[in-house]
Design goal:
By secondary structure, this protein is mainly beta. Helix content is 0%, strand content 54%. The strands form six sheets. Strands 2, 3, 4, 5 and 6 form a five-stranded antiparallel beta sheet that branches. Strands 7, 8, 9, 10 and 11 form a five-stranded antiparallel beta sheet that branches. The chain is globular.
Length: 339
């Protein structure tokens, strides 16, 4: 298993960068997530992995609102992902994907006509696979910009989304029937105001959710706990933590972490708010040292690259993967990084 000592001054800046695009070069002094590698083109990328199986699932939206995915395996020695071929499997917008240790993959997306219909699919994947065996998309709610997380054992999922007016946030808890590739959803519950939510869950049902204010470019988070029996979430009060937009969050399971021993680590990425197509990407690192407090103990905050719509996940053997789209509206290139 790989662990990280996240001390910015101690991270070397001498690595070569696989990017030839000046806008995808890291800012001076960042070091972390600096060696971005181009792998495709598209919009709204999302990525998922799990500590137990060497499979990484990536999705994005292409021209004509087709949703594509690819499956890769982690090359730990070279900190690269060996991607399989891309597959078009549905139409839609704003996909979000999650992967459990038993190979269950769950994906949610908004309909391609932006009529406020949300759909999910369930699939299976194993280490070394280059394709997912998907169910057909199934309607589950109305809203926009959904996010999905799955418990590591694959038994339950947590979904969040905003309403079509981008003012209210809703959550679902569901149990997964892997054999039939279906989800038994609990009730849709409004839990806050805001938009563009992202959610993560760990092996004991602790949750972290991040979102943007409905009125400004301020970012907030919730800590929560999952009750599978009632399919409900007990959310703590929201906490301001940064400014920006398009935030994404990942939450690790319990294991010895260099900064916070025996505490689950939190990793959040987002883009800066900009009036021009020149966004910076920012990273926040912290931990749930006292989940009952409803607060995250943040340790690091820094710019790590440029681009938009970042997404982050903890993947095989304790590594982290970040993906994002370039600022270039013409090429819409997609980039990833392994740490």
């Amino acid at each position: 298993m790989v662990f990280f000592v996240i001390v910015i001054a101690a991270i070397s800046n001498g690595c070569s960068n696989d990017s030839d695009d000046p806008e995808d070069q890291p800012p001076p002094g960042s070091g972390f997530f600096s060696n971005s590698i181009q792998f495709d083109a598209g919009d709204d990328p999302t990525v998922a992995g799990n500590n137990q199986i060497n499979a990484i699932v990536e999705m994005h939206v292409s021209t004509y609102r087709h949703v594509w995915y690819s499956v890769g395996t982690l090359d730990e020695d070279n900190k690269k992902i060996n991607w399989g071929p891309g597959h078009q499997f549905t139409n839609g917008l704003y996909p979000s994907v999650a992967l459990a240790s038993n190979g269950v993959v769950v994906e949610v997306h908004e309909d391609e006509m932006e009529q406020g219909n949300l759909y999910y699919t369930v699939g299976m994947v194993s280490s070394g696979d280059t394709e997912v065996s998907w169910s057909s998309p199934a309607f589950y709610d109305t809203g926009a910009k959904p996010g999905i997380a799955i418990m590591p054992n694959g038994g339950a999922v947590v979904e969040v989304h905003n309403d079509e007016g981008e003012t209210a946030l809703y959550s679902h808890v569901g149990t997964v029937d892997a054999a039939n590739k279906t989800i038994n959803w609990g009730a849709s519950v409004r839990y806050d105001n805001g938009k563009e939510p992202s959610v993560a869950v760990n092996n004991i049902g602790e949750l972290v959710e991040v979102h943007m204010s409905q009125n400004s470019n301020t970012l907030y988070y919730h800590v929560g706990s999952l009750d599978l029996n009632s399919k409900t979430i007990a959310w703590e009060s929201s906490q301001y933590y940064d400014t920006g937009e398009c935030s994404s969050v990942a939450l690790s399971n319990y294991y010895s972490y260099p900064l916070f021993p025996m505490s689950p680590s939190v990793m959040e990425v987002h883009q800066s708010h900009a009036t021009t197509d020149n966004h910076n990407l920012w990273l926040n690192l912290g931990a749930l040292t006292d989940p009952g407090s409803g607060k995250i103990d943040w340790a690091q905050h820094f710019q790590y690259n440029t681009g938009i719509t970042p997404c982050v996940a903890f993947v095989y053997d304790g590594y982290m993967v970040e993906i994002h789209r370039s600022n270039d509206m013409v090429t819409s290139t997609l980039w990833y990084k392994v740490e």
